[in-house]
Amino acid sequence: MVNKFKLDLTAIPKELQLIFMLQKSDSPAHLKTQYFELLTDIDWDQFIDLTMHHRVYPVLSPKLKQMDDDIIPLYVKKFLNKQYKRNTFQMLYLSGEMEQVGRMFADDHIPLIFLKGPVLAHELYGDISLRTSSDLDMLIPINQLEKAETLLTEQGYQKDDYIQTVLNDWKWRHHHVTYFHPQKKIKLEVHWRLNPGPGKEPSFNDLWKRKCISNLTSFPVHVLSKEDMFLFLVSHGARHGWSRMRWLLDIRELLHQQMDWQLTKRLLKKYQLYQTAGQALILVEQLLDKKLTRGMKALTNHTCPKELAQKALFYYKQQINLHTDPVPEAIASYHKHYLFSLMSTQQKLFFMMSFLYPYPEDESTLPLPKAFHFLYFPLRPFLWVWRKTRKHALP
């Protein structure tokens, strides 16, 4: 008899384990008798911090209201309920802007797919109040970026022009550009890729052919098909180390819905996401108690997904925020090696080859006229060594 693989959760804080337990049941009223030891000596302030950090308070708050005050302190329930209400207003606000942007792009004949925001909450949870979102993420063809920028600028959005580029490397090294409306306090991320490169992923035309229409707003807006949504959520969550529990909840909710699993597996194979999907399924099964079908389990039976799932627990042992710079050096180093381990052999080869392509730092090191930028290809190894030498030479 083969022993079932089990994640090692020994280093996970008790407060976070409690949050996982609460997510496993729709009726956690019997939690006290079932998990008495887990409820002992809980740091409730830490519990609140973790609930906010992992963006799971919209799902938790309605559950906690069912529980007695001797199990969950009243101040905890009140605080999370306040955040739940605040998030509901935020999502309604973003829904209005999403409809307006969708209408504006449609009028100007720019095909647009919304990736995240209220539409994702509606598609996954059936209720926009049950998921958080701080901005609107949208995908358009790369050849429509200038047209989209003109439209958004006319509406008062300001571009965060942070991307430095040489020889058009922005087209594959980056995947979105950010716009912010100073009066509305709304951020838009306009994507031309689902994820940063290098890496193979579905073209916009392929995603557009499989798109679905959401009924969240009166004006129809487009979303990814369930199969493409699974690919996107798996690759996005894995790229961030699943460092927010919300991304695992998204996967679980999507797995509750009807999907063409044969198509999904073909897409996973084509875009080399088999082991990443297996990682996600192991985490959802063991941390959130999601029962997997036989077809899903086939992705989890190999060594690599199991190792990746265990590696992801590093991000739960401490409250890691990869979105705020500077990321501590030890965490940044771990994350760099973790990202490399996610790649297939072919992806690793493409990734290493990408270092031969010039970087903006090469232009800063040795400024050349644009007509001579092609020289950065043969010069790149020397410029890289020069920068490393200068860095170590500095006191």
TrEMBL record:
Keywords: Transferase
UniProt key word Transferase: yes
Gene3D superfamilies in UniProt: 3.30.460.40
GO molecular function (one): transferase activity
Superkingdom of this protein's organism: Bacteria
Protein name per the record: Uncharacterized nucleotidyltransferase
Organism field: Virgibacillus salinus
